[in-house]
Design a protein that fits this description.
It is built from nine helices and twelve strands. With about 270 residues, it is of the alpha/beta class. The strands form two sheets. Strands 2, 3, 4, 7, 8, 9, 10, 11 and 12 form a nine-stranded mixed sheet that branches. Strands 1-5-6 form a three-stranded mixed sheet. The radius of gyration is 17 Å and the shape is globular. It starts with a strand and ends with a strand.
Amino acid sequence: MKRIRNPVVAGRFYPGDPLHLRRWISSQGSGKRYADAIGGISPHAGYIFSGDLACKVISSMGERDVFVIMGPNHTGLGQLCSVSSADVWRTPLGDVEVDHEVRSAILEIDGMELDDSAHLYEHSIEVQLPIIQVFHPKARIVPITVMAGAPLGFYLALGRALQKVQAMFEGRIVWLVSSDMNHYEDHETTLKKDELAIEAILEIDPEKLFNVVETYDISMCGVYPTMMLLSLLQGLNQVDAKVIGHKTSAEASGDYDQVVGYFGCLFLS
C-alpha cells in the first residue's frame, strides 16, 4: 500500500478546487523554457501574494524527471534535514510520485534522515507541487525540509555531498529551493535587505549569504536550504544565475508597513 502525504494547506494557501487551481496556474506561466536550468529558488507564500512568481520560476525550467525540493522547516518538528518517506504527495490536482531511486541516493548522505514528522504540517514544499503538476506533469519529486540548528559547515558539507547525487542523475534532476525573503518590515527596508541577500545568491556564495543574513538581520526563512544549493552549485562548471523576479506582499495586500519579500531565480549550466 502506498504511503500518501495528504495536502494540509489546500483551500488556504492555494485554491482547493482543482478546476480553479489548474486554470489559475496555467494563466501564470512565463512561456519560456530554459533547458539548461539545473536549479532555482521559488517563493512559497499564499498564491495571492507570490504564486505568480512561483509559476514563472517553475514554468521556466526545462523538462526533468525529478524535482528535488528543499524547503525550510517552519514547524520545528523532525530532523535537521528530513526526507519524506511518502510514496506520493497528494494535491487537489492528483498525486505526485516520489522518486525512490533519487531519494535512496540522497539518504546515503550523512545528515539526511528519513522523517515524516517535519512534513506533517509544513507548507513550503506543498505549495510548489500544483505548479509542478501543471507545468511538469510527468515529473516525480523528492521532498526535503531543512532547519537551523547546526553550524554553517554542516550545510555547506551537505551541499558538497549532493554534488555526487547531481553527477549520478545529471540531466534527470532539477533542484528547487522553496524560500521567502525578509519578513514583516516595511516595503523599502525589505527590498534593501533582500537585495543584500540576492547579491550573495547571484554570486553563488553560500558563506557570503550566511554572513549577510546574520549581519543585517534578514529573516529569510529558506536561508539554510539555499546555502545547501549554492554549495552544491559551487562544485559545478559554469553556472549562471538568472533573476526571474523580486517583489513584496505589498503589491497584493496594499500594506507597505508589514511586508514579506519574494524572490525567484534560475541557475543555468
